[in-house]
Amino acid sequence: MERLEVRELVYFTAVAEELHFGRAAARLGMTQPPLSRAIQQLERRLGVALLERGSRRVALTEAGAVLLRESRAVLDAASAAARRTRRAGRADPRLVLVIKPGGDGGLLPAILDAYQAEPGALPVELVCSFGEREILLREGRADAALLHRPRHDLTGLDTQDLMTETQLLVMPSSHRLAGRTRVCLDDLAGEPLPRWPGASEGGSHGPEVHDLGQLLHLIALGRMVAVLPSSIRDQLRADLVAVPVDDAEPTTLVLAWPEHATSPALAAFVRAAAAVAGKATGHGG
Amino acid sequence: MERLEVRELVYFTAVAEELHFGRAAARLGMTQPPLSRAIQQLERRLGVALLERGSRRVALTEAGAVLLRESRAVLDAASAAARRTRRAGRADPRLVLVIKPGGDGGLLPAILDAYQAEPGALPVELVCSFGEREILLREGRADAALLHRPRHDLTGLDTQDLMTETQLLVMPSSHRLAGRTRVCLDDLAGEPLPRWPGASEGGSHGPEVHDLGQLLHLIALGRMVAVLPSSIRDQLRADLVAVPVDDAEPTTLVLAWPEHATSPALAAFVRAAAAVAGKATGHGG
DNA sequence: GCCTTTCCATACCCGCACGGTATCGTCGCG
DNA sequence: CGCGACGATACCGTGCGGGTATGGAAAGGC
Predict the structure, then answer these.
(1) Which of A136-150, A176-190, B57-71 has the lowest mean pLDDT?
(2) Closest residue to D24 (CA, C1′)
(3) Residues 6+ apart with CB under 8 A from A20
(4) Is the pLDDT confidence value at A132 over 90?
(5) Residue A241 in contact with residue A119, Cβ under 8 Å?
(6) Residue closest to D25, CA→C1'?
(7) What pLDDT score was predicted for residue B100?
(8) Average pLDDT taken over every residue of chain A
(9) Quick one: which of A1, A208, A241, B113 has the most CB atoms within 10 Å?
(10) Boundaries of each HTH lysR-type domain copy (chains A, B) (predicted)?
(11) Phi and psi torsions of B222, nearest 5°
């Protein structure tokens, strides 16, 4: 069984994405002929046609589509491997935790305290980031992240549930729904909801939002409303109102980390977080 | 950022596993000097020490241990990519489903029928295999598998629950517990339980077992007992008895497939299986 | 219908890096 | 102190990855 090389996968990915040998070669910083040969050789070694070459157009075969997807997985794994190794070799070991400002459900201080009490705890570096936080984990840029299920895609990650919250509709006090004690999702038809960077799917049609202060400001200005976990209640400005959304799926705050991670520092952090979460749900409900 | 090549990862994995450059080189079918240089170059490019060389012993550094784990992931992904691509390019497209004989909970015929009724259904190739069935999925040798949660490790796989079953203790009619109407796990202390190939963890201390007929035979001979999902009741020999185990965690039969799979044939199969399972729990409970 | 344009494939050449052989340096042990 | 084991270094050849030049086929314009 012939080996499959990373370089070949990079080449193939470029061609498969461009569907054009010339452009792909330019993107790779090389010329077209060696690229053509590399792809041919790849096809020969796999014994499979990956591309249909019309003289004017290039298209993926079924097998080519499969290899494109698989290649991305391999390349992601490879660059994550490099990054994680480099980070593990750094002289100043740290635990990188990525959070969304305001998205910690108020548990973070207690978790950090509990972690620092663990033996062998490392300094924790907090990275604040909005959209696409799970990507930082998959890329090997961070050790752990606070995410929300089901909002985030958790495939390929291991997780520890921390706390489940109902969701609130946050709006200016002048809003037509501000007097209600509860609303349901149908009431929100036509309301401008925030668009989170990276989540370009349907439904959200308001302006794009990058930070919690900005979001609350825009809500206060009447430009939009938002459905948020109930723990943000503590952080609301005086000019905003929040009422429960009855039929919004509850959101679970989870601690997530890359599958198969073995670092004892991470294990200690997960232990600490689980302990804090257990205590919190223990009293609080 | 320098590229990380598959060849280098193969080399490093060999050295990291052997902890000996000479043996690693032999295993790779090459001589020692180029191997040493390749590892040095890898360390230089990553800017990290991977191995501690004593003159008499080689040991992994912290970063080396990380890279070993990551390398295995990358290499697994790469060979899975090759296999999946080759299979996608085959002239006779088939859907490969791996099952454990007797482990289908009786749902399989209905699922296969429902799938064949789907538009564009492919011929289904059944592969029977005992231990380590999930590995066939991860290696790209199969499209889907019937597995049991929590018995199998499902990380890295997408799943569809099919049916949840309580578990039964299966034993010869002469067994000391054969007269009981129910037992609990503590009653089984000291009983020889089957060892499944690949699951070498504690608790199971009986002979290794590779197939259901063999297992039932050994039980009938009084050599062991087993805790099995209740759907095997239909397949029991007359000389065996089965009673519920009260505190054994219920087992869920799941259909599993590699994450991010996009094949329409697989999607249709999942749909068919979900429909059958929904109907089954609909009447049966 | 022919010429042009636009691609990918082929032919040929070169340099480098990968792998081999020979040897050294170093540590541990008798 | 000398020998053996093992990784590192030195040096060399060759195969392969990449470059330039050119061929060849198909689509489009006049």
Answers:
(1) A176-190
(2) A55
(3) A58
(4) no
(5) no
(6) A55
(7) 82
(8) 85
(9) A241
(10) 4-61
(11) 80, 10
| Matching fold, domains A95-162+251-284 and A167-244 | yes
* Extents of the domains making up chain B: 6-88, 95-163+251-284, 167-244
Q: Which of residues 39-98 of A touch strand D (CB under 7 A)?
A: 41, 54-56
Q: What is the CATH number of domain B95-163+251-284?
A: 3.40.190.10
Tell me the β-bridge partners of A97.
A126, A144
Q: Write the residue in A71, A85, A263 that is nearest to B67 by C-beta.
A: A85
Least confident range from A63-67, A152-156, A276-280, B44-48: namely A276-280
- Structurally, at CATH architecture level, domain A95-162+251-284 sits in 3-Layer(aba) Sandwich (3.40)
B56 touches strand C (CB under 7 A): yes
* pLDDT for position B270: 95
Contact A3 B4 (CB under 8 A): no
| B54: nt with nearest C1' to CA | C27
Query: Looking at CA atoms only, how far is residue B264 from chain A in angstroms?
Result: 11
Alpha-carbon distance of A104 to A162, in angstroms, equals: 10
The reply to whether residue A77 touches residue B70, judged by beta carbons under 8 angstroms, is yes
Alpha-carbon torsion, ordered B165, B170, B176, B180, to 10 deg: 30
* 8 Å CB contact of A259 and B155: yes
Fold of B167-244: D-Maltodextrin-Binding Protein; domain 2 (3.40.190)
Q: In angstroms, rounded to a whole number, what is the distance separating the alpha carbons of residues A205 and A193? A: 6
Contacting residues 20-49/A vs strand D (CB within 7 A): 29-31, 33-34, 37-38, 41
Q: Above 60 in pLDDT, residue A197?
A: no
Nearest to B262 among A69, A156, A259 (CB): A69
| CATH (residue range A6-88) | 1.10.10.10
Does the beta-carbon distance from B89 to A260 stay under 8 Å? no
Q: What are phi and psi of B174, to 5 degrees?
A: -85, 0
Partner-chain contact A73 B77, CB within 8 Å: yes
